[in-house]
């Protein structure tokens, strides 16, 4: 029974997520991440002095941006840009970059 | 339990369908049936990015990019060429990256747009049919607003260098030929114009060069606006701290007429060794000849969810040619961001899907105040469904605390990254 219950719970969770996903554009994470590409490279594959984001763990990206937003992490520009995105948007962006193959 | 089981079967089915879609999506990159034909006219920041992202996100979309020039030459960073700190080769890139990802690049001039017949005619007489058209025409000049300006520009005696290319090379030559003790005078048009901080950056970079090479020279900045239009405090500080005695800034100094090498303002005449006039601007000729200038007879109004012209649905217009949302600058960075909104929407429209209802765009413009120090202005713009426009997020964005060397490095890295992103390098 516990196994069945766990499975049911997992299914309900999935159905719930599917419901949420329908409410927003299927490509929202991809589109939001593309707003970062001008500096951080296409799909997060940055060049030069910019920080690559491709393949970076989502938790790390979320924590970095939270620190920029709060001012805990000083920055030249990211403290201003991070405040333009909601926490939900940052989670989507972080998940997108985490899923990209890391820069070589 | 029955319901849940049914749900589970559906989920598995959905999972299998998703997997199939993903595989088909991958296969479709090279072999599947085309979802449509898109013609993009203009291979600057906006047009190139649209072509690139249509291929990146759309898989099998037929994308043709029409551009009159053989190569992409960047306006951002071009002021450093005027100062002698960069060469033209540093700001020039090719279209081979776009060709490699499957964009058909056609070097040519568009002679007519047949929106009803959904085709573009090229100067050579050939026609390109399309399902969706993207125009990225940039800006063109309203030279007739200033008496004598059109012939002065046509003769090459007065340069604008507000489109990077031969004008940039020629203005650099004029600056180099200037005698020590000469005057470089630049005129800034009333806003809106392409690249708000660009004129002030140019004044600084030219002054930086002259300070070393011809220290008795003068830079005269004659601004048609009542004050510096971007990074005001930072530019005022740069003018005062770095170029005091050499650079003179005058607000409300609109150019009225050019006559016999003399620039006439309302109450005075200005003579200079180099006259650099940035003319008043409007959306590019292509948008005008297509009848799309429905905002002040000057800019193109757009639906921000799709970037379609409000004058001609099905024709998407991006970049500097658009009538901007509040506080949205005309910049290469912003054109690249418009392009991504357009590319995502066009793919969905071709597939008959709903478009993204919550797009976001952002902007960063770096300006050099010397060859080694730069500063930024940044903004984030979220779509507001109630007002159907992009709005900056309160509390976000801003400018540098001060010009600094780290941001000069970032400015050059920004260029490398956006060129790679736009041109698939």
Explain how this protein is built.
The complex is a heterodimer of chains A (104) and B (425). With 104 residues, chain A is mostly helical. Chain A has a single domain (25-98), classed as Cytochrome Bc1 Complex, Chain D, domain 2. Chain A has helices spanning 2-23, 28-34, 37-40, 58-70, 78-81, 87-98. In chain A, helix 2 (28-34) packs across helix 6 (87-98) and helix 4 (58-70) runs antiparallel to helix 6. Chain A is globular. Chain A starts with a helix and ends in a 6-residue tail after the last helix. In chain B, helix 2 runs parallel beside helix 10 (332-351), helix 2 (45-58) crosses helix 11 and helix 7 packs parallel to helix 8 (232-243). In chain B, 49% of the residues are buried. Chain B has a domain at 144-280: FAD/NAD(P)-binding domain, CATH 3.50.50. Chain B is globular. Chain B is α/β, with parallel strands linked by helices. Chain A binds chain B through residues 8, 11-12, 14-15, 18, 24-25, 27-28, 30-32, 34-35, 37-42, 46-50, 76-77, 80-85, 89, and chain B through 4, 7-8, 11, 14, 53, 56-57, 333, 336-337, 340-341, 344, 354-362, 364, 376, 378-382, 392-393, 395-398, 400, 404, 406-407, 409-410, 412-414, 416-418, 420-421, 424.
């Amino acid at each position: 029974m516990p196994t069945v219950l766990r499975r049911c719970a997992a299914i309900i969770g999935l159905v719930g997520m599917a419901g949420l996903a329908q409410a927003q554009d299927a490509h929202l994470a991809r589109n939001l991440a593309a707003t970062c590409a001008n500096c951080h490279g296409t799909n997060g594959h940055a060049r030069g002095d910019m920080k690559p984001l491709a393949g970076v763990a989502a938790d790390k990206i979320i924590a970095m941006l939270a620190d920029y937003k709060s001012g805990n992490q000083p920055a030249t520009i990211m403290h201003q840009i991070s405040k333009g995105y909601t926490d939900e948007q940052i989670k989507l962006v972080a998940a997108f970059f985490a899923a990209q193959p890391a820069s070589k | 339990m029955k319901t849940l089981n049914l749900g589970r079967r559906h989920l598995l089915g959905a999972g299998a369908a998703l997997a199939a879609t993903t595989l088909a999506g991958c296969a479709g990159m090279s072999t599947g049936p085309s979802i449509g034909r898109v013609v993009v006219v203009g291979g600057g920041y906006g047009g190139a990015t649209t072509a690139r992202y249509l291929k990146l996100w759309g898989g099998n979309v037929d994308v043709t990019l029409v551009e009159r020039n053989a190569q992409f030459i960047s306006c951002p960073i071009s002021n450093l060429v005027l100062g002698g700190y960069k060469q033209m080769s540093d700001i020039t890139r090719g279209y081979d990256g776009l060709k490699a990802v499957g964009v058909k690049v056609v070097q040519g001039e568009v002679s007519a747009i047949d929106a009803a017949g959904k085709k573009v005619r090229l100067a050579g007489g050939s026609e390109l049919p399309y399902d969706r058209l993207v125009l990225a025409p940039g800006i063109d000049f309203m030279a007739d607003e200033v008496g004598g300006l059109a012939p002065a520009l046509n003769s090459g005696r007065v340069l604008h260098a507000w489109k990077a290319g031969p004008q940039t090379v020629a203005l650099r030559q004029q600056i180099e030929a200037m005698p020590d003790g000469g005057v470089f005078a630049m005129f800034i048009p009333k806003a809106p114009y392409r690249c708000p901080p660009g004129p002030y950056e140019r004044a600084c970079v030219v002054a930086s060069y002259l300070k070393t090479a011809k220290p008795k020279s003068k830079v005269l900045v004659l601004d048609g606006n009542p004050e510096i239009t971007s990074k005001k405090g930072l530019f005022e500080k740069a003018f005062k701290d770095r170029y005091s005695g050499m650079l003179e800034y005058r607000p409300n100094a609109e150019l009225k007429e050019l006559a016999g090498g003399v620039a006439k303002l309302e109450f005075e005449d200005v003579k200079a060794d180099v006259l650099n006039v940035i003319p008043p601007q409007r959306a590019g000729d292509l948008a005008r000849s297509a009848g799309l200038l429905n905002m002040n007879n000057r800019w193109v109004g757009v639906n921000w969810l799709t970037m379609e012209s409000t004058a001609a649905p099905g024709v998407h217009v991006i970049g500097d040619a658009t009538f901007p949302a509040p506080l949205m600058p005309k910049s290469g960075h912003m054109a690249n961001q418009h392009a991504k909104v357009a590319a995502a929407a066009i793919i969905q429209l071709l597939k008959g899907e709903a478009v993204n209802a919550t797009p976001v765009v952002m902007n960063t413009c770096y300006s050099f105040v010397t060859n080694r120090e730069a500063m930024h202005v940044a903004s984030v713009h979220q779509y507001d469904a109630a007002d159907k426009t992009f709005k900056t997020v309160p509390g976000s964005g801003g400018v540098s605390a001060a010009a600094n060397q780290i941001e000069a490095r970032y400015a050059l890295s920004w260029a490398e990254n956006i060129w790679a992103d736009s041109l698939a390098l």
